[in-house]
Amino acid sequence: MGRARWYYTDSTSRNKPPADRTPAIDTPPIIIPRDQHNISRANISEHALKVLYRLHKAGYAAYLVGGGVRDLLLGRHPKDFDIATDARPEEVRRLFRNCRLIGRRFRLAHIHFGREIIEVATFRGQPQDEDSEEVANANGEGMLVRDNVYGDLESDAWRRDFTVNALYYNIADFSVVDYTGGLEDLREGVLRMIGEPAVRFAEDPVRMLRAVRFAAKLEFRIPAELGEAIRAEAPRMGSVPPARLFDEVLKLFLSGHAQRTLELLREYQLFGHLFPLTEEMLEDNDPFALPMIRQAMVNTDARIMADRPVTPYFLYAVLLWPPVREAAARYREEGHSALQAMHHAADEVLARQRDHITIPRRIQNPIKDIWFGQWRLENRRGKRPLVFAEHPRFRAAYDFLLLRCDVGEVDPEACQWWTEFQEKDDEGRREMCNLLKRDRAPRKRRRRRKPRGQGAATE
Ligand code: ATP
Ligand code: MG
User: Fold this and answer.
1) pLDDT category of residue 382 using cuts at 50, 70 and 90
2) Which residue has the CA at smallest separation from atom 3 of ligand 1?
3) Does 166 sit in the ligand 1 pocket, CB within 6 Å?
4) What is d(CA 236, CA 139) in angstroms, rounded to the nearest whole number?
5) Residue (of 251, 250, 188, 184) closest to 222 by Cα position
6) Which of 177, 180, 242, 409 has the most CB atoms in a 10 Å sphere around its CB?
């Protein structure tokens, strides 16, 4: 894909960084001049350019960095533009009226242009001086809890996660600067960690999720050594604050490459640390769980491709459905009604899942609406369908039913009925409900004639 479209004329590879990619102070970077790479200002957002130029005019160093540079070199459209500078956050704020300083862990400047936000970060350094007020704190397990040591361009490069994310586009002369060997890895389609993967994952376990996200999105290879480190360090996911994981999981599944991401998450044993209850069902070879989640990811990717909206609550409803279904069956066996069982199961699974990933209040109710909606869609008695069709989550619940139907979890007759129902006008819908009543009536009479104990269970 993108890889083939990327090019640069390599005349400076004699400046290769050390093979082990460990920070080597004073290693000269590879610098690709403007006429030897494919980054054109026409493809950079005008707001990012504005910020870069203003910083430059004020005498600061200003570089585009991260996904912006990586994706432009690959001939892709960057999702956002990040800027690195030697200006301190307060100095950035003085230059831009529309600037807000955010973040505790990383102090960043956000420059707002309507809906577009350009993120400006001051160069970071290696945490070295134990006594310095600015020193990064590790929490005893090597995890960085504060990371505000300022540095220069070189130290900033070595602090980044992957070599392909540590490329800089210099607004001063439009060259591309590479300290870590990212250009070569970009050309070869390899995702390589900067430094020792185990150490970098201990500092920030979310880097494991980022590895999977970039490998899926860029179709890059995860080298064996990196893959092994992810498997070994995966349990560290448990030390990531659940609120951060909510955002990261959405990024994973809303990247447009959810299907591949899911495969990689499972291959590198990360999925079970994000969704342990669901993983248990997958490991038990539940016949519907994996096909349904996979199909949901295929649909999600297709929707993103078609620029159609994807809602976080639908994703979570799917990802947690297998354990909810199982818990509901258990409550049912304990004698609860179908709807009660579903309520208990939903509360139980959401509560247990929240130990791992925060599920914000705003999406909890929509998730439950989808789950309870399954019962409503499968129990079409009387005027219920007419009422439920007006529910704000009806369409989501119906899409969910289709998924279950696709994998054979529910009778296709119910899906067909609802599909037809939606194509009808009010009169037609009422007619369909009446027909159901009529179809049911004789069956009920027949049932009554059966000897006691053999009748079908009714709700
Ligand atoms: P995209 O925006 O396409 O998802 P990106 O690479 O730009 O990908 P961002 O989350 O926007 O990712 O981060 C911008 C850059 O900041 C990254 O490219 C990387 O250099 C650096 N970075 C982000 N998160 C981390 C992290 N957890 N550890 C180290 N470096 C990071
Ligand atoms: Mg980015």
Assistant:
1) confident
2) 67
3) yes
4) 13
5) 188
6) 180
